[in-house]
């Protein structure tokens, strides 16, 4: 174990939390502690929780199977019940559940519980899930330590549930170990540098240092600078264009990008478009008819209905106009889109990879400077500067996404 992992493993508090950056071994620590608890009694039931079923299936269950196999503990994983049954006379069983619907955390009693990434939930949902988990954690298996413990493992996601519970003014029994990414010697030598390349400075403290930091207040794009992110570049003859588009009747917006040396350059903007047919015709006249190949990265909700005719989707109109459409089935999470843009505006290495011709994109420039978060921690839409910002973000989140490393990507590195 790393030093923070071992320090956490040795805690005897009733409600410990392991709060760390990426690669600090949260899932590895969870698995080690869960098996330790199960070995206290063959009748013990250890409850393991992930935010979603996909995380149970892709990360938690495989890691527990790997851990049991390494220890020579025979088991059977019932995927329908999501229970790992062991056949050892010295080891209990494991029930795997999600946090998506806290009201469903019923019907069983656990001896110990381990909760992964609880801070990714909304604060109220996380608090309700924690209360439900504690209520179920009352089993007293024969021969086991009478202490019913619930442990949490998470990346800090701003000042949310984990900060309120363990960071601000913890109650008796609540103890927190914080770990930075670079405390794990099993990681590749360039792992931390690669994170610094990918993340904006505002996220470095949380996702590398494992510290609580304000991810929501103030400016949505705090590091944008109209001078430092400026370029005089324009589109060249017949150059391929990447166009982000946001659908809003009478407020249609688009940002035109080119790629230079693998990085995006915004060379034009379109604001206050009437509807999708209008935008399609405008793009054909200004660009397609002049020989520019066009790929459009639209708002995914445009697959549902048209800004002009409810029987014809916005995406269908664009396809019929001859444009190549690149879009997923749903939009990325707002935070993921914003983080992708911010990482291009300025990353942890001080590089500004997103360039904008501020003379040709004056409204986008204003929007990046002015958009703030509202009282609910979401990008404010009341000022009217959000449409171009949204349009600008769709191609950036699609082509330059921030991918959070998962334990399955580097299991041998014990992250």
UniProtKB/TrEMBL annotation:
The record, for Pfam families, names: Terminase_6C, Terminase_6N
Alphabetized UniProt keyword annotations:
Viral release from host cell
| Superkingdom, natural source | Bacteria
Q: Which residue intervals define the domain Terminase large subunit gp17-like C-terminal in the entry?
A: 243-394
| Leader sequence segment | none
For this entry, the protein name equals Terminase
Question: What organism is recorded for this protein?
Answer: Pseudomonas laurentiana
């Amino acid at each position: 174990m790393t030093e923070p992992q071992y320090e956490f493993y040795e805690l005897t508090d009733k409600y410990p939390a392991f709060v760390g950056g990426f690669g600090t071994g949260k899932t590895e620590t969870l698995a080690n502690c869960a098996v330790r608890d199960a070995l206290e009694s063959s009748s013990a039931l250890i409850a393991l929780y992930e935010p979603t079923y996909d995380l149970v299936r892709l990360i938690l269950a495989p890691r527990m199977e790997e851990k049991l196999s390494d220890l020579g503990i025979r088991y059977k994983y019932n995927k329908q019940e999501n229970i790992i049954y062991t056949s050892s006379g010295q080891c209990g069983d494991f029930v795997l559940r999600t946090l998506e619907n806290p009201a469903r955390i019923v019907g069983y009693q656990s001896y110990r519980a381990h909760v992964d990434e609880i801070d990714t939930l909304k604060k109220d949902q996380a608090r309700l899930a924690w209360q439900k988990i504690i209520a179920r954690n009352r089993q007293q298996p024969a021969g086991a330590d009478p202490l019913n413990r619930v442990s949490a493992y998470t990346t800090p996601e701003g000042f949310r549930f984990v900060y309120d519970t363990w960071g601000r003014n913890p109650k008796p029994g609540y103890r927190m170990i914080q770990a930075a990414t670079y405390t794990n010697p099993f990681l590749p030598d360039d792992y931390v540098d690669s994170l610094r390349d990918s993340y904006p400075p505002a996220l470095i403290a949380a996702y590398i240092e494992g510290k609580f930091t304000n991810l929501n207040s103030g400016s949505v794009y705090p590091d944008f600078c109209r001078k430092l992110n400026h370029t005089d570049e324009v589109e060249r003859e017949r150059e391929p264009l990447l166009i982000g588009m946001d659908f809003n009747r009478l407020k249609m917006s688009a940002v035109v990008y080119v790629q230079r040396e693998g990085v995006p350059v915004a060379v034009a903007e379109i604001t206050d478009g009437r509807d999708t047919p209008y935008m399609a015709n405008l793009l054909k006249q200004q660009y397609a008819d002049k020989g520019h190949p066009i790929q459009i990265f639209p708002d995914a909700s445009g697959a549902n209905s048209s800004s002009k005719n409810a029987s014809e989707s916005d995406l269908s109109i664009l396809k019929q106009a001859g444009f190549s459409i690149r879009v997923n089935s749903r939009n990325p999470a707002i935070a993921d889109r914003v983080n992708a843009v911010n990482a291009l505006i300025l990353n942890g290495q001080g590089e500004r990879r997103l360039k904008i011709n501020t003379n040709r994109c004056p409204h986008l420039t204003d929007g990046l400077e002015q958009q703030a978060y509202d009282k609910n921690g979401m990008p404010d839409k009341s000022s009217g500067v959000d449409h171009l910002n949204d349009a600008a973000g769709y191609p950036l989140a699609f082509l330059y996404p921030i991918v959070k490393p998962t334990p399955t990507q580097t299991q041998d590195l014990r992250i």
